[in-house]
Design brief:
Strand content: 15-25%
Number of strands: 9
Shape: globular
Distance between the termini: 32 Å
Oligomer: single chain
Length: 291
C-alpha cells in the first residue's frame, strides 16, 4: 500500500522542526508509504514499465515506487527536497553505502540504474540518456494550493525527457469514495485560521487535467484504483497520517497533541473489532504526454 500518500509544499508556518524530520520520515516509510502500492502497480502495468523504461520520479519520498519500477527492470532516478526521505530511499535502492558515489550514483559492481538525489528535477539532468517516463506520485486534490509546487517541477522536468514521453499525475478520488476525507476535514477545521495552503478541500473532477494543462502537457488516458488505508491500530494510523504533511497547517494553528487527539477521534468509525483501522479510498491517475 504506498508512496507518498501525499506530499505537498508545506505552509511556511507549518514545516516540522528539523529534529522531527528523521522520525517522521521513518513513519512515512514504515507505515504510510505502502498505502498507494495498488496505484503504483496499476500505473506501471498500464504503461508496461520494464527494461526499456528510464524513469524520473518527482518527489520520490523514501523510494518505494522507484523500487517497484526497478524490480521491473527500469532505470530509475528519484529527486526530493526532503533529505530524511532521500536517505531512506538510498537505504532501499543503494543498500551498500560504500557503493554510492557523488550525486547518488552506485559504484562499480552495483546496478547503475538507480540514482537518488536531493533537490528538484534540475539535479537529475542526463543529456546522454533522456527519460521516457516522469512520475509525480503526490496525490493532489486534498488541500488548497496542493498543486502549486507541482506545476513548476513538471515544467522543469519536461526538457529532461523525450518528446512523447508519458507523465503520470495522481489525485484523490471523489470524497464520497474516500473514507479518509472525513479525517482530513479535521485538519481543515483546525487550520481554518491560517486561511492558506494546507486547508482541506474536496477533490475536483478535473484537478489532474488542470495541472497537466498548466504544465503544457497533453492528457492521454486515465484510471481509478482502490487504495484502502489499513493500520495495525489507531496509534499507527495517527502517526502514518501525520507523516504525510497534510496536518502541518493544523499543528501550526493549534498544537501537536490537539491534532493527534482530534485525528484519533475522527478515526473511531473505522476501527474494527480487533483494533485495526480500515479506510476504503479511491485514487485517480492521469497519463499525459510531452508534446
Amino acid at each position: 500500500m504506498t508512496p507518498m500518500l501525499v506530499r505537498h509544499q508545506p505552509h511556511p508556518a507549518s514545516a516540522p522542526a528539523a529534529a522531527d524530520a528523521p522520525a517522521r520520515a521513518r513513519d512515512w516509510a514504515e507505515i504510510q508509504e505502502r498505502m498507494l502500492v495498488p496505484l503504483y502497480e496499476a500505473v506501471y502495468a498500464h504503461l508496461e514499465v520494464g527494461t526499456a523504461t528510464r524513469l524520473l520520479g518527482l518527489g520520490c519520498g523514501s523510494g518505494l515506487a522507484l523500487l517497484m519500477a526497478a524490480t521491473r527492470g527500469a532505470r530509475v532516478t528519484g529527486v526530493d527536497t526532503d533529505h530524511a526521505r532521500v536517505d531512506l530511499a538510498r537505504e532501499r535502492l543503494l543498500p551498500d553505502p560504500a557503493a554510492t558515489g557523488p550525486g547518488g550514483h552506485r559504484g562499480p559492481g552495483a546496478a547503475p540504474e538507480s540514482r537518488l538525489l536531493y533537490g528538484g528535477p534540475d539535479a537529475a539532468a542526463d543529456p546522454a540518456l533522456p527519460y521516457n517516463l516522469v512520475t509525480a506520485f503526490q496525490p493532489v486534490g486534498c488541500a488548497a494550493g496542493d498543486s502549486d509546487g507541482l506545476v513548476p517541477a513538471l515544467t522543469a522536468a519536461v526538457p529532461l525527457a523525450e518528446r512523447g514521453s508519458a507523465v503520470v499525475l495522481t489525485g484523490w478520488g471523489p470524497p464520497e469514495r474516500c473514507a479518509t476525507t472525513s479525517v482530513f476535514r479535521v485538519a481543515g477545521r483546525l487550520a481554518e485560521r491560517l486561511r492558506g495552503s494546507g486547508r482541506w478541500r474536496p477533490a475536483h473532477r478535473d484537478d489532474l487535467e488542470e495541472v497537466a494543462a498548466r504544465a503544457g502537457l497533453r492528457p492521454d488516458g486515465s484510471g481509478r484504483v482502490s487504495c484502502p488505508f489499513g493500520y495495525a491500530d489507531t496509534d499507527s494510523a495517527v502517526r502514518g497520517l501525520l507523516s504525510t504533511g497534510l496536518f502541518d497547517a493544523a499543528v501550526a494553528a493549534s498544537d501537536q497533541a490537539t491534532v493527534e487527539k482530534e485525528v484519533a477521534e475522527a478515526l473511531h468509525p473505522y476501527v474494527r473489532h480487533d483494533g485495526t483501522v480500515w479506510m476504503p479510498n479511491v485514487f485517480r491517475y492521469l497519463v499525459a504526454r510531452i508534446p
